[in-house]
Amino acid sequence: MPQRPKVDDDEPQTVFLRGNDDGRPSRTKQREEARAGEARVRELVTQLIDLGAAKLRRLELPEELEDGILLAAELPASKARARQIKLLARHLAELDHEAIRRRLATPGGIAKPRGNTSDYAKGWLARLLSGGDSELEALLSLHGDLDRQQLRNWLRSARRTEPDGTRKPASSKALKALERALQPLKPTEATTDDSEE
After folding, report:
1. 197 pLDDT more than 50
2. Which of 107, 108, 110, 94 is nearest to 48 (CA)?
3. In the predicted model, is pLDDT for residue 1 greater than 80?
């Protein structure tokens, strides 16, 4: 029987590794993740293009990016639009695009901001709805910049109710329009002096 050759224990053993066993993702995996990230940003750009100008302004994006999105919205589906989307995706990738995505996904995230109606304006609204023309005249004497005829029309419509006490849709619209008109009102100096006495 032939004898086996002696193996020298001092000789280093060759170890073959499969993949990256050191915990890092492979380059292929890194490329796939980068492509997926780019696709997500392009998808976000497409969502922004579909939003429309008014909602887009509420996101308060940089002016250059907003202008580019509005331009892309005007372009027909073509290679030019695809190039514009790619360019916008590069710009958006430099920003916190995940915050923009979260804001779009949140219900009311880009809703029209509602101003807080002051107690002063709410008081006038209640007075106008319960009172007559004398209340309207009192309001106009303090705030002459309001449109008398428009306020009268809204008041007339807002006062209309069904026999069961509910408001008609036109009446509700008029009430909201009246609230918006009165919302910016602030007490004048004459009314604050009267209340201090």
Report:
1. no
2. 110
3. no
Residue 124: which of 80, 182, 69 has the closest Cα? Answer: 182
Q: Is pLDDT of 18 > 50?
A: yes
CATH number of this structure's domain 119-192, picked from the four choices 1.20.50, 3.30.450, 1.10.60, 1.10.10: 1.10.60
Q: Are 49 and 6 in contact (CB under 8 A)?
A: no
Beta-carbon contacts of 171 under 8 Å, excluding residues fewer than 6 positions away, are 157, 158, 159, 160, 161
Tokens for 120, please give them: 């002063």
CB 77 within 8 A of CB 50: no
DSSP 163: T
Per-residue pLDDT of 93-152, as tens digits, reads 888 888 888 888 776 666 555 555 677 888 888 888 888 788 888 888 888 888 888 888
- What's at 53, amino acid-wise? A
Measured in residues, the chain has a length of 197
Q: Which distant-in-sequence residues (6+ apart) come within 8 Å of 114 by Cβ? A: none
State the Cα–Cα distance between residues 157 and 155, nearest whole angstrom: 5
What are the residue boundaries of the structural domains of the chain, listed by start? 27-105, 119-192
Contacts of 56 (CB under 8 A, 6+ apart): 48, 66, 69, 70
Tokens coding 156? 């007339």
Using pLDDT thresholds of 50, 70 and 90, give the confidence band for residue 186. Answer: confident
